[in-house]
Model the fold of this input.
Amino acid sequence: MLKEREENTCLFSEEHVKLIKEQYEDWFDNNLREADRELSDKYFTQSGIPIKLIYTPADIEDVRYSEDIGFSGLPPYLRGVYPNMYRGRLFTLRQLAGLGAPEDCNERVRYLLDHGATGVNILFDLPTIRGYNSDDPEAEGNVGQCGAAVDSIWDIDAFFEGIDLGAVSSSVVTHLPSTSLVIPGMYFAVAEQRGTALTQLAGTCQNDFIMETCVGSGYEILPPAVSFRMQCDVVEWICKNVPRWNPISYNGYNLREAGTDAVTEVGIAIANAIATSEELIKRGMSFDEFGPRMSFFWDLHNDFFEEVAKCRASRKVWYKIAKERFGAQNTKSMLMRYHVQTAGQTLPATEPLNNIARSAIQGLAAVFGGCQSLHLDSFDEAYSAPTEEAALVSLRSQQIIQAETGVVNTVDPLAGSYYVEYLTDEMVKRIFNYVEKIEGLGGLLSAVEGGWLHREIANYNNEYQKKIESGEMKIVGVNFMEADQADVAPIKVFEYPETFSRQKAKLERLRKERNDQKLKESMDILREKCHTDENLYPYCLDAVKNLSTLGEIEEIFREEYGLWAFPLL
Amino acid sequence: MDRKIKVVIAKLGLDIHWRGVYLVAQYLKEAGMDVVYLGNKFPAEIVEAAIEEDADVVGLSSLCGNHLALGPMVVDMLKEKGLNNVKVFLGGVIPLDHAKRLEGIYGIHRVYLPETPMQTIVDEISESVRDAA
Done:
């Protein structure tokens, strides 16, 4: 995709670039040591883009300011989605909360809100993530571990007790489409019971079929095509009924954590956004009906400049796809808005306090990249879900970036760096190529069903690990400047051993108090609707209001749709 | 010819983080072991597979906090079935005091915390099987 060089808008004149190239040659030959010259092409970004020793205008000679970079809040949105960026609205401080029973989480959420957090980010335990009740045999040992246990609408009510649902924005981290059909519905039903209209609710659910089928392995996995259909059901229903809610967050983050580079992370998320858009258009929606509510989720890893470039590039790629491929008319449909979490995978257990520095640097890259909301991983990442102390340090680190460093005072401050603009342009090309590659495989669903993406992840991890084992990739305190064992600080881990008994007792009470007849009716209808093309959301919502549990609904899905074998076995 | 070391390796219960376990499985294979990766399984299923495969070693992976509940169950069930020579290795995100308890009273042969070099795992598994022979 070579651009016509347009002299008027290119950053540097042809003549000037010619001169710089000559000066570069001269500089390279006469100023560098032999060793520098030999190594000049031996450095790479994490995703394999060669890094030069020095960048000059010659490296971005074809970049046109107005068309390729432009202004914040204007196409191609490379510099940011809003004109005033952080002067207008700072990125949301959205620290994760979730451990134990919903009642414990309520305390943590209020603690974070009291300390200046501006959004809620709720995280579930694995039985909830994978759709089992706390008292199911499969849940044993996992109830309230690494996240909150949620079984029914009562738990969402307890989680948000004393919190005005019309006033907060809540990220409800339901990974799977099947649980996104249920848990956000519990939130909506609680809001209605409290007299808050669905139109007032702001939030996000994750709802990503890649999470169900590739990123996480599972004990019981729904087939990709079913999971994808549910993903689209969630987007369709929520767009029509809860207009301020983001019904999907294309999860590059966990894919990256599972094992991919920056290009794949964004490429897969965008391929999924394309697949979803095509399906929803097939269902009769226009792109502008759902485009404004699509959100993305990136992992900010260690390679600082590449990560900044990734963020800038991804906005431009999405703009072009929305505009050129789907004919978006509404400006909001063209804006890639995203949440960032720093890379948990980069935070070792060894010398955990060093992780405060790692997360802060990754968080800074996120802000240079122009994120809309941010979670900084805590220093105890490799031990457990964050303790209160660690969560506060993460929140404070974000506040330091916002209030003390001054980086939020101007838009996209790294723009114009020869290196950053070169990398951004390169990332744009590579992301487009990756999306094309997926389409060449018959689309994302086929790539998943055949195990292609799983093999990509496995191969990447193998190479990554080899780089660590060989010392080519340095991890301070681990394989570089190794720590003494004595330096390993013990971390106090949160434990809520009583969560299981509390959830069990609540479930027993629920089963006694609910109207079995009404419940059965709604469950029978849901079961029947599984075999139609109808959107499943209203039927799940109805079941939830009749006090169905999450596990009961998910069991219907597992029974009606059958299970899928994870391809790497 | 020496029989290859047979390893049955699984993710414990519902844990979804397969990066580490699959990597370990690949490294053990590359080191010449016969590796069966089961994916996500619960203790009874893991023990059943260990019997069926005539395993020397059972490898477990947990990054989500179910190690204390499910790890010792695997050890106990193996003993109940009379498989006293099968060594159980467990890796993942495990608090230090839990790791000590697992290696102590719960009879897990070895617990691997994050950052353990793959070569260490390969070497220690080979050693444990050689010692048992």
